[in-house]
# Entry
Amino acid sequence: MNNTTAADSRIRSIVIVGGGTAGWMAAAALANRFKQGVTKITLIESAEIGIIGVGEATVPYIKEFLQDLNINEVDFMRATKATYKLGIDFDGWHKPGEKFIHPFAGYGARIARIPFHHYWAKMRTQKKAQALDDYCLAAQMARHNKFALPKANNDIELSSFNYAFHFDAGLFAHYLSGIAQTLGVKRIQANVQQVNQCPDSGFIRSVGLDTGEIIEGEFFIDCSGFNGLLIEQTLKTGYETWNQWLRCDRAVAMPCTSKIAPASATRSLAMDAGWQWRIPLQHRVGNGYVYCSDYISDDLAAEKLRENLEGEALADPKFIRFTTGMRKQAWNKNVFCLGLASGFMEPLESTSIYLIQSSLTLLLNHFPNNQYNQALVDTVNNNLRIRQEKLRDFLILHYHLNQRHGQALWDECRTMSIPDTLAARIEYFKKTCQPQVDELDFFGTNSWLAMFSGFNIQSDYYHPVVDDFDTHLVEKELQAIATNINNTVKNLPSHLDFIKRNIVGE
Ligand SMILES: Cc1cc2nc3c(=O)[nH]c(=O)nc-3n(C[C@H](O)[C@H](O)[C@H](O)COP(=O)(O)OP(=O)(O)OC[C@H]3O[C@@H](n4cnc5c(N)ncnc54)[C@H](O)[C@@H]3O)c2cc1C
# Structure
């Protein structure tokens, strides 16, 4: 950035370092926003280093990203071999053998304008209610491997649910790369070998490639993965670690062939030293064991994962080490970091791609001109910090509320002290029957309800209007809702049939 005040202060050159999911999402979004011919966007990626190649489960917010780029959902699903995702199927997290679903949906229907879960809370204490999942269409669709697109109907909460995708990470980056290049992004395949800074300000001026080329830029986006080539190795921004609460620090990934029809939810199975994901795609299944290296060796983790594969392994185990936490500033001088360069929270709730997207949206809404503007930097950094701390708390809750007694990792997580912010949220729910969420929470009321019910956290309170209704009538109403959902689910196509008919075109 220069210091002259010109009539036209637009930034003319943006350089993105890294061509994984973060780099190509940034390239496509920026090229879509900025007028071609004014701001030059260059992306540098290294074939030698490659991409991390995991990150295949998403949250519904991804649909907004596709819509902004005018991407047709069916085309996208074909290109990335995607399947639908209605939520996450948590198996054994509360206790071994117990399951619950975190759906992208709400529960039941309002009665006399009071949310359903107040009625459910009362009836549950009287043992006159089924599991909360039984009152959620999306949860039951996921439980029975069914899928249909939601139909808008504001009167009946039963019909309102959302969905996301499971996709092939490599194909996703490739697909976005095509779109970004069509929108004018210049792609360079090379290794960045040196980073050149302005001696006075420390701002980055250019990067030197192994081809001998020097690429200059006014604004840089660091999407270089865990190493954070610009934001950390060059600017030494600092990293805040959260592994005192989120104890897992490694993962082993191994794709396999599919033997069973694809589930319409991500599967998250609690294991002795962490948990295992299973992500069904059209052409294979993504699997991984996220674990705490204090409690299991790499070899044993790989062996446990292999034992649980549904089909033949398609590759050798890939081991990934990570440190949970966040970069102290996402935006430092003229560098903004995204994706793994900006921090990492384990993929328990598929929040990383969501964070890439929301960070990009924030950056685009506060995009600088060629004058340094601390107010914009602070606004974006503060907002991102709050969002990440909220996500962190949501993830910690999954571990802390477990009842897997006698397993060292789980005993440690259950008894550890948790952030005050999370402790306050749990207490608030116990007192009010209402999750405490605000506009910076990605996970809203329904998500927290899914967790509280899945981990058997009950409230002492329910809304007094609930007592205006005869208990027998409320019981019948609850039964009617569950039956209605059951009947609807029976008549829906299987997830596999839906994909074959609407995506594959068989
Ligand atoms: C085990 C695991 C499971 C995950 N699962 C999920 C999930 O289910 N859902 C989800 O939302 N997220 C998930 N994530 C996170 C997700 O994978 C990442 O957020 C996403 O892939 C973005 O990665 P990236 O683009 O930042 O990094 P990478 O994919 O690592 O890309 C880095 C890029 O930088 C380039 N590069 C690096 N150094 C140089 C250099 N010197 N010169 C030139 N280029 C360079 C590389 O070649 C590459 O192109 C998971 C992560 C892990 C570790």
Remarks:
- The domain at 13-81+167-242+325-373 is CATH 3.50.50.60 (FAD/NAD(P)-binding domain).
